[in-house]
Structure formats: structure tokens, C-alpha cells
Design goal:
alpha+beta; Rossmann fold; OB fold (Dihydrolipoamide Acetyltransferase, E2P); five-stranded antiparallel sheet; four-stranded antiparallel sheet; 6 helices; elongated
């Protein structure tokens, strides 16, 4: 009976009905939002398999960044009904063109400072820290910011060269730790396999 079907089974039935007519274009609007994490992963694979088999173009609407990055051939990021950026998942994640895309998709920290051509000097470093950024979009250079993803920061001893901060929160993620770091420039989220303690002073620098 329909009421006895699980959430995943209901989604499979809905997708089967949608592709039965062999459409050239299929719209999926948040199709996995009501499923638990394990079912979402299973359904992602099924939708990708259906896409490869049927060759049907799929417009997939989602607010789940990881879902979009994992499944899409091309992503369009929208804000307030306007396109912020369009490109491959790699382009969107690695080379954001606006602050919204950097924060929403890449989960980037925006470090304040000054640009000198392709060289960035963080505000609190007093010129002691220089980051290269030939790949950084002009938007950030005009606004005096450097978008740094959580996995781009290197955490080290406070005696090492870099911005100075203190660990204010720690979350163990299995293969890595997610840290919140308080510095004179603001609060940063940083992922690292290195282990630091709460309230421990650290230095932050950009990975090469």
C-alpha cells in the first residue's frame, strides 16, 4: 500500500513516474530534502545513474551545497532571483566570483587586508604575511578581501609566521577537526587534521 512505503521508496516511485514518459527535460525541486543522510546518498547515486542511462537533461534545485557539487555537471548559483555565478562544480568551489558564492558554496572566510597586484597583505599582519592570489577574482581585490576556504588555512604554533589567534571551539569530524579561531581580524572556521586544545593560541597561514 502507498502509505506503507518508506520515504526513499516514495521518491523512487515519483522519479519512475516522471521518467516513464521519456521527457527531454526533468525538473527536480529539492527531491531529497525530506530523507535522512544515508537515504540521500543512495538516492543521489540513483539519480546520477538514471541521468546517465536516459540522457535526460535534469534541472535540479537544491539548497544543499554538497549535493550540488557532488551531482552537477554545471551549477548556477542564484541569490534574490539573480545569477551570482555559473560554471562547473570545480569552478564554483575553487574560484568563487562573489562574496555570496564564496561563503555559501565554498564556506570561505573573508580575510580583510590590502592587495598589491596579485599579492595580499592581511590587515593584522603589519606586512609580515604575504599571500599570493593570482587566481582570486577581481571582486575580492576591489573589496580588499581574500576568500580562504576552511581547508586552505594551515594551523601551527603561535611562534610560527602567520596571523595570531586562539581556538574558541572544537568539533571532531572523524578524519579531521573543525575549529573556530578568534583573531584580531575576526572569527574563522578552519578544518585541520592536527589536534589543538580549546583556548590554545595558534598561528594561521595560507597553505602553499
Amino acid at each position: 500500500m502507498p502509505h506503507e512505503l518508506s520515504g526513499g521508496q516514495k521518491q523512487r516511485v515519483a522519479i519512475a513516474r516522471a521518467i516513464a514518459a521519456e521527457p527531454s527535460l526533468l525538473l527536480m525541486d529539492e527531491p531529497l530534502s525530506s530523507l535522512d543522510a544515508m537515504l540521500r546518498m543512495d538516492m543521489r547515486r540513483e539519480i546520477q545513474h538514471i541521468h546517465r542511462q536516459t540522457k535526460t537533461a535534469i534541472i535540479y534545485v537544491t539548497h544543499d551545497q554538497s549535493e550540488a557539487l557532488a551531482m552537477a555537471d554545471r551549477i548556477v548559483v542564484m541569490k534574490d532571483s539573480q545569477i551570482e555565478q555559473a560554471g562547473t562544480p570545480q569552478d564554483i568551489y575553487l574560484r568563487p566570483q562573489t562574496e555570496f558564492v564564496a561563503k555559501f558554496v565554498s564556506k570561505a572566510n573573508l580575510v580583510q587586508g590590502k592587495w598589491y597586484n596579485d599579492t595580499f597583505v592581511p590587515a593584522s599582519s603589519n606586512g609580515a604575511v604575504l599571500w599570493q592570489g593570482h587566481h582570486v577574482a577581481d571582486y575580492f581585490k576591489k573589496n580588499g578581501t581574500y576568500p580562504v576556504r576552511t581547508d586552505q588555512f594551515h594551523l601551527g604554533s603561535p611562534l610560527q609566521t602567520g596571523l595570531k589567534g586562539e581556538v574558541t571551539n572544537v568539533q571532531f569530524q572523524g578524519k579531521e577537526y573543525l575549529y573556530q579561531i578568534e583573531s584580531s581580524d575576526g572569527q574563522w572556521e578552519i578544518s585541520s587534521q592536527q589536534q589543538f586544545q580549546l583556548n590554545e593560541p595558534v598561528s594561521l597561514d595560507l597553505m602553499n
